[in-house]
Input
Amino acid sequence: MKKNILSFIVGTILLVSLNACGQKESIERITASATWDTYYENIQEITLSSDIICVVKVLNIADTYYKTDYNIPFTEFQVEVVKALKGADEGDAFRVLQTGISTDTMIFEIEDDPLLVIGDEYLIFGEYNNLGTVTILGGPQGRYIYEDDMISSLTSSDGYPILSLAEKVNTDSNSSFQKINANSLFDEVEKYIAE
Output
């Protein structure tokens, strides 16, 4: 009898364990809206407003915390400079502060400014804040995906480009773009830095 009960308990534990391993935990996705305090009309304006402009590779999450006043989550990403245009040198490392957090069970992020992705590279226009980290200017206006020597705007969850400065490159044209050659954008930024 004891052997049958023990076998039943071991069998039940094994069955529960196998079921738990076979089920993926669902991750709750929470998005919030934000209004950016500054809207940049063109690349020249955001370039001149930036303390730091560079292509960075996201290395890891350095810290996460909640601001106690409003219980808003923040993540600090450790990044390394891949290409420096202003305020940094290649190989420099610093932290980028972003509103939002990702845990094993939940992702909270700003709808048009999704969290940085570890391993991805971005062109960022940023400013130093009083925490000693860098804040990307204008949310999605100050961040572009850098891949295969091309620059592209962030896309929303439905696949459409997020309205950003991508529409304001080469201000003599009103056309928006999905991807442009990175060097043409770098040349434009460097022209404004030199002024």
